[in-house]
Amino acid sequence: MDTHIDQLEHQLDNFTAATRRQALLELVDLARDGKIHLPEPTTNHNVHGHTFFSYNAYGYSPSKFAWLARKGGLCVAGTVDFDVLDAVEEFLEACRLVGVKGIASIESRVFVPEFGMRVINSPGEPGIAYHMGVGFVTAHEHPFLSRMRAAAELRTREMLQRVNSFMSPVTLNYERDVLPLTPNGNATERHLCTAFEHKAVHVFPEPGERVLFWEEKLGGAPSDSVKLQNLIRAKTMKKGGIGYVPPDEKSFPLMGDMNQCALDCGAIPTITWLDGTSDGEKCIEELIAVNEQCGGAAVNIIPDRNFTPGVKDHKLQNLYDVVALAERHHFPIIVGTEMNSPGNKFVDNFGSTELKPLLPVFLRGAHIMYAHTLFQKCSGQGYLSDWAAKKFSSVAAKNDFFEAAGRELSAEATPERVLERIQK
User: Fold this and answer.
1) Number of structural domains found in the chain
2) Strand 101-111 relative to strand 76-82: parallel, antiparallel, unpaired?
3) Taking phi first (over 0 means left), then psi (-120 to 50 degrees means alpha), and beta for anything else, what does residue 83 get?
């Protein structure tokens, strides 16, 4: 039986959607029959996990993430992919099937004109910020999203052309060597790194020759695959590398335009915060205000970047400060681990001395976003809807309502139960 379960779990990452769904249904049946133990939900959650529709370091599909979240006792789980919404419907349905509360989001890089001379959270790139829309319920065909996807592909193709000229004779064909690594054509820098590592094995099958090649091109030849791919990325695709082109205000969409797209799609524009050490993030109150003026209403944090266990330093204090600031603005905070780089955790250590005091705030944000997802999906009455604006006298009151609803409503909540809760 264990072997069969392992096979089914492996099939959850198949690039064919029908194969993934059939495997998930079989796993759910096994759990229902008591052949797989699924624990009761804990306070653990991860609402910022990338899937293989952009890049997941472990190859997880939306269905695989939902299943592992349920097996791991997560109370809320959320996907986020760069530049695409391909995971949304599969993930939310998988969450419903397995019994975990689900949220779906998108992430991209945007230009913030008011911070055009200050680095925000994209290292070395003034005015550029990672930014999100949270709480999508379907893969909308919004013109902005189509342009964003096309622009992302063009950047990757052009980067590959530049890196190919440097890496010769280890060169890649985008269609033949890169796209097969993706389920739906959304290739990233990390896919290029994987492809270059694989291609080098083909061009230099003798290990000694391959080591000499990498030392010549990169100045080093780590035997560890993760370290090698990170070195490829750092030396060829990041600032100073042959594939890197400094961005300007025309390289990425405006934050305001991405916010408007999220609002048009019934989602929540969400600022992302790195660690508070850049010139831009030292002015985080100003950045939040700028975002708020064009519809922003939430904050995303990756906690693991912001503390060293057992160490109290300025980065940990920055984390506490930004949480306090978001609370004053009544911005829900969502957190997660990304999983788009090897070594990323599946879930944060919320029991640590550093994060334990923040857990209630993080859980509050997760439950607010889950309630938003249910309400938006069932009746279009999400967190930023006209209904919500009319119903609540303050953002604080709205947060209290959505948090309570997110806690009360189960992962299998029916539309009737959701509407009943809305009408209270």
Assistant:
1) 2
2) parallel
3) left
Which tens digit of pLDDT belongs to each residue from 381-407? 999 999 999 999 999 999 999 999 999
Residue ranges for the chain with pLDDT beneath 50: none
pLDDT by residue (tens digit) across 109-159? 999 999 999 999 999 999 999 999 999 999 988 999 999 999 999 999 999
From first CA to last CA, the distance across the chain in angstroms is 47
Is 21 within the bounds of a domain?
Answer: yes
For residue 301, the SS3 value is: strand
DSSP 175: I
* Length of the chain in terms of residues written: 424
Q: Which residues contact 253 (CB under 8 A, 6 or more apart)?
A: 108, 110, 111, 144, 147, 148, 151
Provide the domain limits for residue 5: 1-37
DSSP string, 177-220: IIGGGSSSS---HHHHHHHHHHHHHHH--SHHHHHHHHHHHHS-
Residue 6 domain flag: yes
What pairing do the DSSP bridges indicate for beta strands 128-134 and 101-111? Answer: antiparallel
Residue/partner pairs of 233-241 with CB below 8 Å, 24 or more apart: 233/189, 233/190, 233/193, 236/163, 236/166, 236/167, 237/159, 237/163, 237/189, 237/192, 237/193, 239/123, 239/124, 239/125, 241/163
Q: How many CA atoms lie within 13 A of 116 on its CB side?
A: 8
